[in-house]
Specification:
The structure is a homodimer. By secondary structure, chain A is mostly beta strands. Chain A has one domain: Elongation Factor Tu (Ef-tu), domain 3 (Beta Barrel), CATH 2.40.30. Helices cover 8% and strands 29% of the residues of chain A. Chain A has two helices and nine strands; from the N terminus they run E-E-E-E-E-E-E-E-E-H-H. In chain A, the strands form two sheets. In chain A, strands 2-3-8-7-4-9 form a six-stranded antiparallel β-barrel. A two-stranded antiparallel ribbon of chain A has the order 5-6. The interface between A and B is large, with 77 and 77 residues. Strand 1 of chain A pairs antiparallel with strand 1 of chain B, so a sheet runs across the interface.
Chain lengths: 168, 168
Amino acid sequence: MNPVNQAFEYTPIGIMHSPHTVPHETPIQPVFAQACPGWAEIRPEYAEGLRDLEGFSHVYLLYHLHRAGPAIMQVEPFMDTQSRGLFATRHPCRPNPIGLSLVELLAVEGCILRLRGVDILDQTPLLDIKPFVPRFDQCQDARGGWTDSVNDEQARTRGARGFEKGNL
Amino acid sequence: MNPVNQAFEYTPIGIMHSPHTVPHETPIQPVFAQACPGWAEIRPEYAEGLRDLEGFSHVYLLYHLHRAGPAIMQVEPFMDTQSRGLFATRHPCRPNPIGLSLVELLAVEGCILRLRGVDILDQTPLLDIKPFVPRFDQCQDARGGWTDSVNDEQARTRGARGFEKGNL
């Protein structure tokens, strides 16, 4: 396994702006933050790369989980109370703390992406943007492991973490 | 935009094994590599984090695109002939060359994940594994921008890049 001894250095392509400033009050996934606006500010040198993006309704954001603690192999997922293997969860305390969110793209205005369904902390460094391509990314009939046994009410209440309490 | 001047260093959690050894003959997405087996070999120190993963039918793999060239802001997507903004494509020549594939998980055997639908080059350094959670990740009614106008036949022929020619 020699190639895995290398390390790779990444530099942010931009920064996230959102109303979420407290990690434990931040919704754990876009599905629990549906009404939440936010925007991504992209470095001017990458503006040209945003061309043609506006035709997509959804984008994946990859970002550095800058407030995550050290990696732990057994975690209690936010959505449940039973401990699980880290890689069977989306918990932020990972060996490489890269976050992945599928958010709604409302508009592209110069170097700004206007977004909805933002579950990302304010000031999070953004690493990449990928379009959601229905032909590649739609996955019907998937089994969700332990998450399938969490009921919708519990998932939503615990997942939203107080965000938009009025709607719960 | 001060926080974006930082750099982040990631170290592989494991390595990919696949039949794909030539970049330009590698299918561009799992959907064009459906029958293709492969496996991920995870570092032993992370084995405990794989617990509970087997219940999931699909996982996202995040990996370092180790054969990608320097970033270019205008690219010709593999699936089409017209130039597009980089971030409106899944092209590998990105500022942070992180690949994202949604693959089928067949089994977890110790530190080995048996996979199907592998569109990843052999020896690719693996950065993270995230479970596909239907509640978070299913996205109906998405618009696919320019990719919606590529017909299925062209997408499949160009996307498979000769892989399993007999099936095209």
